[in-house]
Amino acid sequence: MRTGLLTFAAVIILIVSAIVIAGVNGSGEAELLESAYEHTSSVTISSILEAIGFVLLVAPLYFLFRAALARSSGRMKSQLVGVIVVAPLFFAISGVLNGIATNEAADAFEKGEAKSTLSAEKGSEECRAEERDKGAKAFGEKYDSGTSPLKDCETTEQEESKAENALSEASLRDPATGFGLAGRIGLAVALVYCCLWGMRVGLLSRFWGFLGMALGVAALLLLVQFCLIFFIYFGLLLVGKLPGGRPPAWAAGEAVAWPTPGERVAKELEPKDGGGPDPDPESRPP
What we know:
The chain is an all-alpha fold. The chain is 70% helix and 0% strand. The N and C termini lie far apart (64 Å).
């Protein structure tokens, strides 16, 4: 029950984190940093909430791993428990470092400390190419705040270069990226392994076992938020609110393998009362 409540707490905190940071947006890096500068507290609060949420996710992952390990008859690799624990922690560290790096980059950009590495000639060339691709009308509608669309585009390109450099030069950007990548790989391994063995020993249904593995793979494709679907299900399972109840392996304390399709069909064809079909009344002896 306690682990289930921690699971729900983690999911809620991560959702709130996403809501808090939703106000920081922009069509380009320059607008994004301007928005981040105006909402510094939102960036900080969101990164802290994200870290707390991922730390709490250690509980359900570890619980599922230990439960499957206890029912696997020594077939699981207990050494992988380290990956189960550190993967969410890497995400937590990455979230905090990203928040600090974003605020640092936004501050440098607004103070004019970030420099553009895009030459005027290159910027003009890119703008002219964009004008040819979009057409004069669409190009003019996009860049309409300067003395001319072309000048506005060139100014925008220079600002984008400054913003990109501010982000890349932030002191904690590289560590944040590294921890984030390690977290994605670790979470993918953790979910795939735990769900695979949870399904094999009967702790998870085939549907949720395969879905959990698929969501683990999705974590590698920058879709970590979709993994919350599995944790919502697992939280319901742990608190006993899952429609249909828990799989029998939870109460049995040992592996209870799911029947194969052939076994299910054979069971359905078995006589209900242990006998064959009733004989034809007309063929009974008098």
